[in-house]
Amino acid sequence: MKPLGGPHHFTGVTADVQTNVDFWCRVMGLRFVKNTLNYETTFRYHTYFGDEDGSPGSVITFLHGVTGPAAVRTLIPYVDADERARVERHLAGCDACTAYIDQMRVTIAVVGRVDVDDIPDAMKVELMHAFRDWAPS
Questions:
Q1: Is the pLDDT of residue 16 over 60?
Q2: I want to staple 13 with a disulfide (CB 3.0 to 4.6 A). Which of 69, 71, 73, 126 is the partner?
């Protein structure tokens, strides 16, 4: 089997399922692949999106109804101890990443929600390229 050369998919969490579906389908142009029960927590749904070709790196999934500390508890089992330690070491010594995380917190607090019609097409294309081309350093 040929290696992917990048991530297979990204997983996030969402508290607002309909807004999430609207964003990834209407704004980003991804296709709704499926909605299934999460395997580990069968009381939560897990929604999948991807491009029409099923390109590696285009698949994005979301766990429903998980926010704040519950999101951390839900996602931690997917991150092994070595990876978690690597990220924590990096964050402890990287002012740029710490600033980025702080920016994201402020942005979420200030913006809250963005109307999907306000996002320029060029930004949508750029975001999808960033997802597809991302590779760990």
A1: yes
A2: 71
The separation between the first and the last C-alpha atoms of the chain, rounded to the nearest angstrom, is 23
- Specify the pTM: 0.52
Residue 2 placed within a domain: no
- How far is the C-alpha of 71 from the C-alpha of 68, rounded, in Å? 5
**Domain residues for 113?**
9-132
Give the mean pLDDT of 96-116: 68
Confidence band for 114, pLDDT divided at 50, 70 and 90: low
Q: Is residue 88 part of a domain?
A: yes
Structural domain includes residue 18: yes
User: Residue 66: which pLDDT band, with cuts at 50, 70 and 90?
Assistant: low
The answer to whether residue 3 is domain-embedded is no
